[in-house]
C-alpha cells in the first residue's frame, strides 16, 4: 500500500505541517510528527475532508464530517486485505497502454511527458514518484532510471534511446573518410584486483616507481603515460586497481583498445577481476591476461587458467583465443613477452584515426590547481589538439594556454592516442567528458551555457529527492535515507567514493549522493547539507572557517578522510547501525602562515598567526593549501620568541615547525587537532 508523509500531504494542500496536524488531530490517525506516514486512502479522505467547497460550516457539521471520516477509516481497516489485493490488481491495469507495453524515452524526461507516454494522468505519476522519495512537479525532469521504475509500476517497460546530443546540434563531430585515416598508437588499460600487482606491472613496463607516497597504497587519480616499445608508441591508462574504482575502470574501458588483465598466480580470479572482465567485454575490448607473481612458491598457473575458463576466457594453449602471459612484475620476468603480445594484438586491430581535423578527446582526469587553475588530462582520439585551440568539454570551455606530456614537458600539439595535460579551461570538467575543438569562444561559451541550463533543470528535482529527517525515520523504524555531499581534491576520487557508497544501499538504508565537487568544503556546501539533511564527506580536503562555523550552527556532520577505505568503512558502519565512532577528531584551532624561515640545519619554520582556537605542541597538525590537505603529521617545535611553549592562543603569533616536512609556503593554513576516545553508551 502506498504511503505518504504528513509534510508531503501538507505541501499538496498548501498548508504548513503544523496546521494540517492540528486540523486532523481528532481523527485518531496515530500521527506523531510531520514525518509520520499515512496510507493513500487516508490521505485521499483527508483531502476530501479539507477541500470541500468553502462555505459557512457550523460545529455540528464538522463533527458529522469527522464521524463519516472515522467510519470510512474503519471500513478501510476491515477490508484491508481485500483492498490490498484490489489495489495491486489495479496497479497492473492502470495504464491505458496495457501490461508489457514498451515506451521509448531519452536519458531524461519531463514528468508530464512520461505520464502521456504511459497513458495516465500526471498526478498518478507524481504519486508514484513521492512513494520513491522523489519530489518533482509535472514540469520537472527525472532521469531514465527513475522513469523506468515508475513505468514498471503501471505495467509499462521503458527502452532508453540515444538522445540527440548537443554534439550533433552544434556539429562538433563527424565520421572521417577511410582515405583520411592514419595509423595511431594503441591505448592500453591495465585492470586487476587490488594487490594483484597492477601498479607494479606498470612500473616494470615504464621502469619507474609511482607507488611511493600513495595513501593507502591505492593510485588516487587516473593518469596516462606513453611508452616506446621497439620504436612504436603505446599509451597506458593508469586506472586504479581497487574495487572502489570500478566506475572509473569501466570508463577507461570505453576509450581503450586493449585490456591487460592482471591476475595473481598465487591468488586467482577475484570479484574485481570478474568486474574487469565484464567491463572489457561490454566495451568489446580484446583481453590479454598477465598472470603475475609467478615467482611465488604457491603460484599455480593451471588453477588460474581454469578460473579464467569459468569466466569465458579460454587460454590459447587450452584451445581458446585468450592470450595469457606468465610474468613477475617484481623481478621483471616476462615483461618483454607481454609487450610483444600487446603490439601483436594492436597490429591485428589496424588502429587508425584522422589527425588532420578538429580534435576530439576524452577527459581522463581533472582537478583544481591553486597556481594553474583547472587542469585536465585529455586523451586525444581524433584530430590534432594544439595550443591556442578553443575547446568545450561538459560545462567547461576555454582556450588552451599550455599543454604538457606525461613526462611534464611542454608540447605544442597532441595527435590521436596521445595523452596531454591542458591548462585554460573555465572550470574543472568531469572525468569521461568529451572534449571538442570549436571555431570560436562564443560558440564554446554558448554550448557550455546550454549544458549548464540542462544541468540546472535536472538538479532542481535532484535536490528535492529527500528532505526527510534521518533520525526521525530511524526512531519510527521506517526506511532510512542517508544523503551525502562529496567534496574532494580530484574528480577521480569523487567518482570512486560515489560509486562505492552507492553500493552500500540496503533494504533499510538508501544512500543518495546529492552533490559533489572538486575543492574545499564551503559555506554553500554546508547550507545545502542543512537543507537536505545530508552529511558532508571530504576526501583530502577540509572545510574553511566559515564552513566550520555554519556547520556548528546548522548541526551538519562533516567527515574528512585521506584514505578511501576509511570513508567507505565509516559510512558502512553508519548504514548498518549508525554506531558512534570509538575515536573522534576534535579540531583545536587554525593558524595562517605569514612568513617562513630557513634554519641552518635545512628545516623550515613557519611564522604563524593563530586565527581561531589554539595550537598546541602535542596536537596533530595538517597543512592546508587552498583547503586541500598537503601534509598530515605532528608539530616538531612551537616557540614564542625564543621560548618553547605548550600552546598558542588565538590572536597571537608564534614559530612552528612540522615533523619531517619543510615545503611550507606563505598563505598556507595549519589546522591543529586531537583524537579522542569515546566510550560506547
Widest beta sheet: strand line-up: 9-10-8-11-12-13
Which blocks of ≥5 consecutive residues have pLDDT under 50? 53-62, 76-92, 164-168, 208-222, 241-253, 460-475
Question: What general form does the structure show?
Answer: globular
Secondary structure tally: strands: 35
Mean pLDDT: 78
What is the beta-strand fraction?
Answer: 25-35%
Oligomer state equals single chain
Task: Give the % helix.
Answer: 25-40%
Distance between the termini: 37 Å
Largest beta sheet, briefly? 6 strands, mixed
SS class: alpha+beta
What count of helical segments does DSSP give? 20
Radius of gyration: 30 Å
In terms of topology, how is this protein built?
Layout: E1 3-5, H1 6-12, H2 17-23, E2 37-39, H3 40-50, H4 59-78, H5 80-93, E3 101-105, E4 108-110, H6 111-118, H7 122-131, E5 141-143, H8 144-153, E6 156-160, H9 166-169, E7 182-183, E8 187-192, H10 198-206, E9 223-229, E10 232-238, H11 246-255, E11 258-264, H12 271-282, E12 287-292, H13 301-310, E13 323-326, H14 335-349, E14 352-353, E15 360-369, E16 373-382, E17 385-386, E18 390-393, E19 396-404, E20 410-411, E21 413-414, E22 419-425, E23 434-438, H15 441-462, H16 470-476, E24 480-488, H17 491-502, E25 509-518, H18 523-531, E26 534-539, H19 545-554, E27 558-561, H20 564-577, E28 583-598, E29 604-616, E30 620-625, E31 628-640, E32 643-644, E33 647-649, E34 653-658, E35 669-677
Parallel strand pairs: 3-6, 8-10, 8-11, 11-12, 12-13, 24-25, 24-26, 26-27
Antiparallel strand pairs: 1-2, 4-5, 7-14, 9-10, 15-16, 15-23, 16-22, 17-21, 18-19, 18-23, 19-20, 19-22, 28-29, 28-35, 29-33, 29-34, 30-31, 30-35, 31-32, 31-34
Helix pairs in contact: 1-2, 3-4, 6-7, 11-12, 17-20, 18-19
Amino acid at each position: 500500500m502506498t504511503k505518504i508523509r504528513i509534510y508531503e500531504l501538507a505541501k499538496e494542500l498548501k498548508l504548513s505541517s503544523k496546521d494540517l496536524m492540528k486540523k486532523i488531530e481528532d481523527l485518531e490517525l496515530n500521527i506523531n510528527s510531520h514525518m509520520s506516514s499515512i496510507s493513500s486512502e487516508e490521505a485521499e479522505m483527508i483531502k476530501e475532508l479539507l477541500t470541500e467547497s468553502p462555505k459557512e460550516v457550523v460545529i455540528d457539521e464538522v463533527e458529522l464530517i469527522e464521524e463519516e471520516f472515522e467510519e470510512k477509516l474503519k471500513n478501510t481497516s476491515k477490508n484491508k486485505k481485500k483492498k490490498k489485493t484490489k489495489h495491486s490488481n489495479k496497479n497492473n491495469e492502470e495504464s491505458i497502454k496495457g501490461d508489457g507495453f514498451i515506451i521509448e524515452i531519452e536519458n531524461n524526461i519531463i514528468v508530464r511527458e512520461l505520464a502521456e507516454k504511459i497513458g495516465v494522468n500526471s498526478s498518478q505519476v507524481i504519486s508514484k514518484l513521492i512513494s520513491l522519495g522523489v519530489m518533482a512537479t509535472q514540469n520537472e525532469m527525472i532521469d531514465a532510471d527513475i522513469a523506468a521504475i515508475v513505468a514498471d509500476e503501471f505495467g509499462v517497460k521503458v527502452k532508453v534511446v540515444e538522445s540527440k546530443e548537443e554534439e550533433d546540434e552544434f556539429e562538433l563531430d563527424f565520421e572521417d573518410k577511410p582515405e583520411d585515416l592514419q595509423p595511431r598508437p594503441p591505448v592500453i588499460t591495465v585492470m586487476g584486483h587490488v594487490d594483484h600487482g597492477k601498479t607494479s606491472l606498470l612500473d616494470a613496463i615504464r621502469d619507474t616507481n609511482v607507488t611511493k607516497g600513495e595513501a593507502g597504497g591505492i593510485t588516487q587519480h587516473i593518469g596516462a603515460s606513453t611508452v616506446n616499445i621497439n620504436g612504436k608508441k603505446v599509451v597506458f591508462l593508469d586506472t586504479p586497481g581497487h574495487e572502489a574504482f570500478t566506475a572509473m575502470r569501466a570508463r577507461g574501458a570505453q576509450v581503450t583498445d586493449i585490456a591487460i588483465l592482471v591476475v595473481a598466480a598465487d591468488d586467482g580470479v577475484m570479484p574485481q577481476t570478474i568486474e574487469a572482465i565484464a567491463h572489457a567485454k561490454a566495451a568489446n575490448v580484446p583481453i590479454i591476461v598477465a598472470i603475475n607473481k609467478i615467482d611465488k612458491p604457491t603460484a599455480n598457473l593451471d588453477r588460474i587458467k581454469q578460473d579464467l575458463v569459468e569466466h569465458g576466457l579460454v587460454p590459447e594453449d587450452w584451445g581458446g583465443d585468450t592470450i595469457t602471459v606468465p610474468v613477475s612484475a617484481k623481478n621483471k620476468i616476462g615483461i618483454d613477452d607481454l609487450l610483444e603480445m600487446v603490439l601483436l594484438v594492436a597490429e591485428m586491430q589496424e588502429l587508425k584515426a584522422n589527425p588532420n581535423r578538429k580534435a576530439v578527446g576524452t577527459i581522463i582526469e581533472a582537478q583544481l590547481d591553486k597556481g594553474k587553475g583547472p587542469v585536465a588530462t585529455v586523451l586525444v582520439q581524433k584530430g590534432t589538439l594544439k595550443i591556442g585551440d578553443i575547446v568545450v568539454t561538459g560545462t567547461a570551455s576555454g582556450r588552451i594556454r599550455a599543454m604538457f606530456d606525461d613526462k611534464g614537458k611542454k608540447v605544442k600539439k597532441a595527435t590521436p592516442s596521445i595523452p596531454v595535460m591542458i591548462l585554460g579551461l573555465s572550470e574543472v570538467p568531469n572525468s569521461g567528458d568529451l572534449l571538442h575543438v570549436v571555431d570560436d569562444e562564443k560558440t564554446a561559451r554558448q554550448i557550455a551555457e546550454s549544458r549548464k541550463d540542462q544541468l540546472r533543470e535536472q538538479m532542481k528535482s535532484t535536490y528535492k529527492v529527500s528532505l526527510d529527517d534521518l533520525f526521525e525515520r530511524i526512531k519510527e523504524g521506517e526506511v532510512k535515507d542517508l544523503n551525502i555531499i562529496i567534496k574532494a581534491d580530484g574528480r577521480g576520487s569523487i567518482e570512486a567514493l560515489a560509486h562505492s557508497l552507492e553500493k552500500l544501499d540496503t533494504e533499510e538504508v538508501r544512500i543518495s549522493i546529492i552533490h559533489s565537487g572538486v575543492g574545499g568544503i564551503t559555506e554553500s556546501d554546508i547550507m545545502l547539507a542543512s537543507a537536505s539533511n545530508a552529511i558532508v564527506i571530504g576526501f583530502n580536503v577540509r572545510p574553511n572557517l566559515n564552513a566550520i562555523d555554519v556547520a556548528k550552527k546548522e548541526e551538519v556532520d562533516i567527515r574528512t578522510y585521506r584514505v578511501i577505505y576509511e570513508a567507505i568503512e565509516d559510512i558502512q558502519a553508519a548504514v548498518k547501525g549508525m554506531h558512534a565512532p570509538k575515536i573522534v577528531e576534535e579540531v583545536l584551532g587554525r593558524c595562517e602562515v605569514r612568513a617562513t624561515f630557513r634554519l641552518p640545519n635545512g628545516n623550515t619554520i613557519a611564522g604563524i598567526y593563530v586565527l581561531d582556537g589554539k595550537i598546541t605542541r602535542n596536537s596533530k597538525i595538517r597543512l592546508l593549501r587552498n583547503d586541500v590537505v598537503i601534509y598530515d603529521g605532528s608539530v616538531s617545535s612551537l616557540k614564542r620568541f625564543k621560548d618553547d611553549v605548550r600552546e598558542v592562543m588565538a590572536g597571537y603569533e608564534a614559530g612552528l615547525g612540522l615533523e619531517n616536512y619543510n615545503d611550507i609556503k606563505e598563505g598556507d593554513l595549519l589546522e591543529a587537532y586531537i583524537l579522542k576516545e569515546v566510550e560506547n553508551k
